[in-house]
Inverse folding.
């Protein structure tokens, strides 16, 4: 949320992006935290080259394709990494299209050729010559991707993974709602817990140190008392030492 807020520029854009991400995560059963991270990165690389609607449409199509095919989190991240690099470079290169995007989304190269309206061989030459502009062809690629994958009419993904992600998202939304309350709810609660644990830890350290000092002092006092006890016993029982009755009584009392 903090990263998205930084790149959004305005509170209005931030609210729009959050609403969009909630809609996508709910519809396709995608985990909201990872989705927000991916969208933030894509938004940064594309916001000066594409409109907000185009950014959302491309992101929605890639997300839908990944969810429908049951792609792993790593594969989805790889797909968005490829898109980010395409937008950052401005042109589409074989490394991103054939490699990263092609590995994440099977058939990506052929789908791009159809989107541009050329053969795969011609597409390769366009990329080699640096003539395949990312801002021009990615919106077309997103639309063609949905056609080829047959997911144009899909509005909701229902799988076990999607259900698990929706459950996780419900917890995330609960934490967000508590954190955004007027009292700072969840943040203040956990701050209280952490501060309390920190205080307890410091007390335990002090108590442990105090017991250590006490034990050391007791040892010293015990040795001193033992020495004194031994010496006075020697004095009391030694025939070489002349003691008065009063002195003997005093030593006995101390022992």
């Amino acid at each position: 949320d903090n990263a998205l807020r930084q790149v959004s520029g305005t509170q209005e854009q931030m609210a729009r992006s959050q609403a969009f991400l909630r809609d996508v995560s709910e519809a396709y059963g995608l985990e909201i935290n990872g989705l927000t991270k991916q969208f933030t990165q894509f938004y940064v690389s594309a916001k000066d080259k594409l409109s907000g609607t185009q950014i959302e449409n491309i992101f929605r199509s890639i997300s839908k394709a990944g969810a429908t095919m049951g792609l792993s989190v790593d594969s989805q991240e790889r797909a968005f990494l490829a898109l980010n690099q395409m937008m950052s470079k401005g042109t589409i290169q074989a490394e991103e299209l054939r490699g990263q995007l092609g590995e994440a989304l099977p058939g990506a190269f052929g789908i791009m050729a159809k989107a541009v309206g050329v053969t795969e061989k011609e597409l390769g030459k366009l990329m080699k010559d640096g003539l395949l502009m990312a801002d021009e062809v990615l919106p077309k690629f997103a639309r063609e991707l949905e056609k080829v994958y047959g997911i144009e009419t899909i509005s909701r993904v229902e799988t076990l993974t999607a259900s698990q992600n929706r459950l996780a998202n419900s917890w995330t939304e609960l934490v967000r709602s508590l954190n955004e309350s007027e009292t700072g709810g969840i943040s203040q609660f956990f701050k209280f817990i952490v501060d309390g644990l920190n205080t307890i830890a410091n007390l335990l350290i002090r108590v442990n140190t105090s017991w250590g000092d006490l034990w050391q002092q007791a040892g010293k006092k015990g040795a001193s008392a033992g020495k004194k006890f031994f010496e006075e016993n020697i004095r009391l029982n030694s025939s070489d030492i002349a003691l008065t009755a009063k002195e003997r009584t005093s030593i006995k009392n101390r022992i």
About this structure: The longest helix spans residues 185-237. The radius of gyration is 37 Å.
